DNA sequence: CAGGCCCCCC
DNA sequence: TTTAGAGGGGGCCTGA
């Protein structure tokens, strides 16, 4: 489409529809900039706008905002008192978006008392009459009203880059209706799927669609409702008013008293400087690039006439139409980062042995010193030291560089530093100390003394946040440190080694890190105390860090040959499956591509009557979806098997041998102590917390984790149902506690209670259902979720949940108390006071709030379980060391500990482990630990 | 190269 | 078309 073709086109955008859409697209992972602003909505909105401009280059366009209280808002409020209110992030976003639009010279409109949809509808009709083609972006539920000859509808992309333009035929096809008015009726009937519209309670969407098709319109349906039968008739008749109101609320006003003036909706050339300034303030760095791509003409000649553009006088005049919204909302003050040049600091280079000796002397007079190692790699098992920085006073510090090529000299300097690191009386501060600890250990230096890791401190203070030093410096100290990327480049294969950076820059960067970290410590330490997190920090997390170091350091033995054999088998099986799949599909395609796979299953083979789609518009092809289709075509089983084998091969069988350390010949995972918001650990590179166990083929993989040699065995000790026991103890539910104290099969006991039958008559199926609810309770069940899981109907599931709460009344009370606590305090706590903040608990958005409410229940349980096992780990580590056992703790998998033990220790150590784990925390419910021994992990489990 | 999708674990 | 619908994680692969 060329720009000439655009002459008579008008684009109309519903601002809030776009903003909300963008906001929700990022709801699970919102974009928060360093000023703490949730920029999801602004970002998404701007992105979509740019997409539109890139694709259509519109000459005439208006972004339409809702203003004031409109008819529909009022009506709806009466129907439902707790109307959704605007999320905070959107309130913040709106003024920014206005600024952006103003800088882009894109006209805005609004009309007091009418919704954007009404304004758009009216303008569209008027434009249509004057022969213009109109493209509308409105909230989807409303557009159908406006479908007519010259009006098109376009849909924003939710995250990707594609805007779809639907023509009338396509829209009709999607709705499977003939006339626009039918579409409106249909939409009015969509009931609780459309959160603004009540619909006809009790009449399902499909049924409603059917009725309307039969009767032609909703009014007609009500007029002839006596023809309906039974329950349906009752429901339809009982809800006549609501049904009509639904339609009224869904109807768009197309007679808004507003002038239509095509010329006034002209898009001007943007004020480049102004746009860039806003993006910079918001930290939208990529958006600036996007901006330049979106307006290629303006940026073609960088030195060209674009300077004049900013002075261009042609103002669209549309701002006057927009009158009320942004006046009372002030822009958040943009903070001024101090730059390093402005900061007075004294960072000294300490190169020679003599100078380092003097430094160590100074350091030994200190009580607290912050240090940070600079290395050649982020992998502590291979990283080589490039330098170490030290700081014990604000704005002061030292940097000891090493010559990576001269090992002897490096070791010489390290020997001089050793007394400092091994001095028990000097507390050491650092960011992510586990890393430095491990690096130094490879140089035979053992860090001693009290440790303070700022990353862990911040994790305890706000577990949901990110804990990078850069971010901490910005949020806690309002200071922007030198970025590592500015020294060694963006990560990737072209990234330089830190050792290649000029010494002076190394020094500035490295010492700044120590300097800042020390300041962070001073800031975070009192916060820990204030939030009663000191104990958790000093008695659990910091000691645990050392335990983790030993675990990672030790690594685990892997039977590479077994895996290699398995890989060969898998290759054969996969290629056999591949051939069969291709022949069944009738063509060759990439089975690993969900996109291509979806097209084959749903478009070509036409399996399943209403395929689900993912956010991006592809067909969903997840395991559950495929399982439901299993009976329809042979190909499905093959695909499922293919997927399973492919996963095992790529993630485990082929990947694990690559992770074997060439020197130790063992696999060294890394435990992340600060990523899981609940307090759990996470494992990566490789992840040894998700080694298969369910399927026979998966078990073969677990079998490849073997003991050190034939004089050693693997010991696996796992807590039995720890989370259920914890929820029993924390809720103090007497029925639950009794059940555990009596050593009953808890799931069976639950089944007996909810189905009201004696224990010995519980069937397997009933026990399994009970088990599902038991876990559901931990995660926060809904009847919907339970019915999906169990295959029971939704009402059966609901009854089951009710019966469950009746059986465990105190548990029910506990759940509501947790939610109440979260509302009142803003956070919930584990047994040991580990916090999780849940600001969304106050959200007016159902989805968001419910999520927070489930977290209010789940976080303390999952977190307490994490606390318990962490204590056990520390104690066991201590005891093993004390009694000089050679048994090593290797892995932690949330409720399981895995050890490598010499044969002669197994008996004693097994007892020690069991005993320590079971008694690490005293509760009203016994903690039970099962211990297993074997030559490999599978056998031990 | 990042994010979507999927699947592995507790 | 329009979601999501039980918590917490990590990793592979495609597609731009």
TrEMBL record:
GO terms for biological process: DNA-templated DNA replication; double-strand break repair. Residues 698-905 form the DNA-directed DNA polymerase family A palm domain. Residues 8-268 form the 5'-3' exonuclease domain. Its EC number is 2.7.7.7. Residues 347-529 form the 3'-5' exonuclease domain. Pfam families: 5_3_exonuc, 5_3_exonuc_N, DNA_pol_A, DNA_pol_A_exo1. Gene3D superfamilies: 3.30.70.370, 5' to 3' exonuclease, C-terminal subdomain, 5'-nuclease, Ribonuclease H-like superfamily/Ribonuclease H, Taq DNA Polymerase, Chain T, domain 4. The keyword Magnesium does not apply. One of its GO terms (molecular function) is DNA-directed DNA polymerase activity. It catalyses: DNA(n) + a 2'-deoxyribonucleoside 5'-triphosphate = DNA(n+1) + diphosphate. Keywords: DNA damage, DNA repair, DNA replication, DNA-binding, DNA-directed DNA polymerase, Exonuclease, Hydrolase, Nuclease, Nucleotidyltransferase, Transferase. It comes from the Bacteria. Belongs to the DNA polymerase type-A family. This is DNA polymerase I. It comes from Apibacter mensalis. The gene is polA.
């Amino acid at each position: 489409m060329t720009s000439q073709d655009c002459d008579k086109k008008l684009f109309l955008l519903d601002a809030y529809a776009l903003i909300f859409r963008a906001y929700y697209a990022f709801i699970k992972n919102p974009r928060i900039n360093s000023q703490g602003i949730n920029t999801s909505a602004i970002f998404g909105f701007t992105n979509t706008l740019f997409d539109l401009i890139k694709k259509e280059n519109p000459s005439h366009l208006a972004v339409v905002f809702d203003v004031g209280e409109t008819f529909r808002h009022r009506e709806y409020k009466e129907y439902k008192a707790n109307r959704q209110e605007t999320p905070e992030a959107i309130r913040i976003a709106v003024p920014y978006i206005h600024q952006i639009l103003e800088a882009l010279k894109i006209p805005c409109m609004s009309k007091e008392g009418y919704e954007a949809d009404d304004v758009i509808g009216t303008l569209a009709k008027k434009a249509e009459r004057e022969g213009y083609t109109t493209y509308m972006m409105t909230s989807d539920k409303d557009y159908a009203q406006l479908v007519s000859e010259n009006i098109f509808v376009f849909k924003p992309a939710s995250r990707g880059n594609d805007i779809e333009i639907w023509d009338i035929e396509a829209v009709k096809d999607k709705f499977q209706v003939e006339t626009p008015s039918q579409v409106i009726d249909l939409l009015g009937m969509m009931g609780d799927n459309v959160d603004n519209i009540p619909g006809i309670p009790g009449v399902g969407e499909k049924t409603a669609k059917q009725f309307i098709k039969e009767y032609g319109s909703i009014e007609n349906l009500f007029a002839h409702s006596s023809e309906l039968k039974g329950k349906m008739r009752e429901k339809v008749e009982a809800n006549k008013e609501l049904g009509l109101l639904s339609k009224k609320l869904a109807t768009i006003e197309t007679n808004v008293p507003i002038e239509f003036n095509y010329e006034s909706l002209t898009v001007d050339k943007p004020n480049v400087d102004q746009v860039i300034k806003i993006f910079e303030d918001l930290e939208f760095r990529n958006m600036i690039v996007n901006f330049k791509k979106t307006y290629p003409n303006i940026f073609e000649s960088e030195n060209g006439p674009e300077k004049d553009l900013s002075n261009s006088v042609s103002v669209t005049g549309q701002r006057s139409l927009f009158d009320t919204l942004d006046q009372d909302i002030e822009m958040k003050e943009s903070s001024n980062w101090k730059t390093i040049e402005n900061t007075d600091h004294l960072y000294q280079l300490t190169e020679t042995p003599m100078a380092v000796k003097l430094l160590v002397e100074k350091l030994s007079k200190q009580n607290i010193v912050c240090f940070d190692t600079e290395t050649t790699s982020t992998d502590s098992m291979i990283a080589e030291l490039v330098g170490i920085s030290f700081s014990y006073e604000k704005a002061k510090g030292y940097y000891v560089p090493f010559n990576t090529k001269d090992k002897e000299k490096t070791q010489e300097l390290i020997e001089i530093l050793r007394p400092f690191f091994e001095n028990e009386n000097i507390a050491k501060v650092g960011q992510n100390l586990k890393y430095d600890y491990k690096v130094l250990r490879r140089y035979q230096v053992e860090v001693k003394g009290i440790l303070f890791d700022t990353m862990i401190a911040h994790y305890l203070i706000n577990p949901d946040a990110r804990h990078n030093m850069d971010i901490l410096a910005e949020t806690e100290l309002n200071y922007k440190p030198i970025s590592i990327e500015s020294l060694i480049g963006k990560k990737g294969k072209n990234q330089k080694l830190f050792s290649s950076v000029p010494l002076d820059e190394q020094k500035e960067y490295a010492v700044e890190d120590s300097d800042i970290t020390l300041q962070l410590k001073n800031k975070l330490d009192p916060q820990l105390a204030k939030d009663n997190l000191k104990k958790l920090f000093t008695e659990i997390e910091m000691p645990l860090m050392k335990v983790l170091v030993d675990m990672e350091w030790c690594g685990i033995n892997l039977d590479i040959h077994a895996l290699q054999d398995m890989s060969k088998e898998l290759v054969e099986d996969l290629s056999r499956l591949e051939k069969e799949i291709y022949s069944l599909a009738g063509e060759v395609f990439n089975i690993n591509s969900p996109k291509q796979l979806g097209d084959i299953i749903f478009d070509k083979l036409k399996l399943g009557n209403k395929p689900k789609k993912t956010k991006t518009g592809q067909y969903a092809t997840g395991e559950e979806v495929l399982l439901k289709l299993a009976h329809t075509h042979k190909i499905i089983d093959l695909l499922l098997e293919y997927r399973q084998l492919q996963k095992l091969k790529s993630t485990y069988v082929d990947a694990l041998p690559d992770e074997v350390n060439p020197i130790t010949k063992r696999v060294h995972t890394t435990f992340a102590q600060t990523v899981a918001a609940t307090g759990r650990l996470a494992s990566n590179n490789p992840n040894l917390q998700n080694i298969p166990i369910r399927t026979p083929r998966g078990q073969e993989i677990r079998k490849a984790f073997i003991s050190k040699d034939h004089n050693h065995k693997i010991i696996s000790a796992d807590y039995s149902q720890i989370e259920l026991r914890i929820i029993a103890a924390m809720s103090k539910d007497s029925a639950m506690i009794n059940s555990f104290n009596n050593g009953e099969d808890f799931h069976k006991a639950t089944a007996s209670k909810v189905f009201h039958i004696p224990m010995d008559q519980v069937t397997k199926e009933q026990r399994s259902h009970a088990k599902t609810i038991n876990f559901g309770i931990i995660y926060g069940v809904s009847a919907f979720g339970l019915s999906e899981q169990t295959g029971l109907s939704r009402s059966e599931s609901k009854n089951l949940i009710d019966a469950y709460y009746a059986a465990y009344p105190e548990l029910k009370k506990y759940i509501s108390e947790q939610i109440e606590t979260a509302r009142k305090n803003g956070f919930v706590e584990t047994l040991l006071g580990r916090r999780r903040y849940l600001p969304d608990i106050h959200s007016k958005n159902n989805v968001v709030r419910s999520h927070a409410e489930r977290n209010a229940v789940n976080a303390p349980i999952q977190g307490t379980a994490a606390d318990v096992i962490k204590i056990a780990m520390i104690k066991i580590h201590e005891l093993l060391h004390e009694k000089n056992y050679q048994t090593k703790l290797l892995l932690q998998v949330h409720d399981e500990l895995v050890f490598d033990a010499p044969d002669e220790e197994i008996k004693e150590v097994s007892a020690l482990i069991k005993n320590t784990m079971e008694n690490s925390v005293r509760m009203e419910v016994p903690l039970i630990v099962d211990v297993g021994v074997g030559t490999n992990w599978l056998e031990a489990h």
